[in-house]
Amino acid sequence: MNMGVASLKNLNLDIDALEKIFSDHSISTITDKDGTIIYANQKFCEISKYSEDELLGENHRLLKSDEHSPDFYAKLWDTISDGKIWNGEIKNRAKDGSYYWVKTTITPLFDFNHNVQNYIALRTDITKEKEIQQNLEKMEAKLLSQNENLLSMVEQKSNELVKSARLATIGTMASRVAHDLKNPLTILQTYADMLTPEIITKLNSKDREKWFRMQTSISDMNRIIEDVLEFARTSEIKKTPSSLLRILKLALNHVDYSYGIVINLPDDDVSINCDPRKLEGVFSNLLDNAVHAINGHGEIDVSISFDSEFTKIQIKDSGPGISDENLKKIFEPMFTTKTTGTGLGLVICKSIIEQHGGSISVSNKPTTFTLALPR
Known about the structure:
Radius of gyration: 32 Å
Structural class: alpha+beta
CATH superfamily of the largest domain: Histidine kinase-like ATPase, C-terminal domain
CATH architecture of the largest domain: 2-Layer Sandwich
Distance between the termini: 96 Å
CATH topology of the largest domain: Heat Shock Protein 90
CATH class of the largest domain: Alpha Beta
Coiled coil: 129-156
Keywords: ATP-binding, Coiled coil, Kinase, Nucleotide-binding, Phosphoprotein, Transferase, Two-component regulatory system
Number of domains: 3
Protein name: PAS domain S-box
GO molecular function, one term: ATP binding
Largest sheet: 5 strands, antiparallel
Order of helices and strands: HEEHHHEEEHHHHEHEEHEEHHEE
Domain PAC: 86-138
């Protein structure tokens, strides 16, 4: 084998220190200035499934997969031959035809005249992380498709029903659609939950963002399905004497808002005869709408008053208000000013309040929702 150098010991380097680092901590190779492999440590042999004798004297083209374009390799070579360090991720093909990914740093080594003499490549196996990334992307795409199909089906069917004056049948249709989508959504949630915190911490920031975006999308889709099912259900109201302030505080736990938003709850409490679980859903929906309306900064005031017949709860936000045109349609099914959602939230709220024998109304500038419940 006419290579001039056949092992790390023949190189003019600090052998003892480098040998230990390469062997214990990294998948490592060294090439001459032309890219011919003159050293490969044991970890590189293991992942590539080539023996040291098979690798020495060869070029890394031996491991080339079809993942990267010729331009990718040209830019890599231009960088290192210019004396610069190259960092990136490479998909290689092992001797047995299997593929693996490595996060790679290639550093030029110079002679006394500052001419490139060798290249040293240090790698980390990221094959599992790449598999996780690909699974995340597939699940995200499937989830987005399911979500878009759900919204499209609900919108299409509801428009047909409105036009034909048969809106009442939307409950049956929506319930079937929601139930059909709940099972695949549960599967997606299960796979997402399989990513333990230990695995998630190994993902790069881009993949972690994808995972969190997927979790948010699953949560959004669950909320949409629950809205549809709640609209379809006509469950009986179960009234019990309940603390109104406690219901408001429980509802607040379901509202996601930033530090720039202040939500002021009343100091005084009052007991009302109601279905506390259903009212909790009403308040969380109204508070969540108010949070969206003020767009990250402002105040939401919740107040309680009463007369001889009704307990009144007002939820007022400091947002820009609702246009007169939208105000007229705000309690109509399928109407929403949000980019996502079913437009059923306020319809459900209105239905629940009316089941209690009460009423709900809205006024503008500032936007104020007023609920009146029998005492």
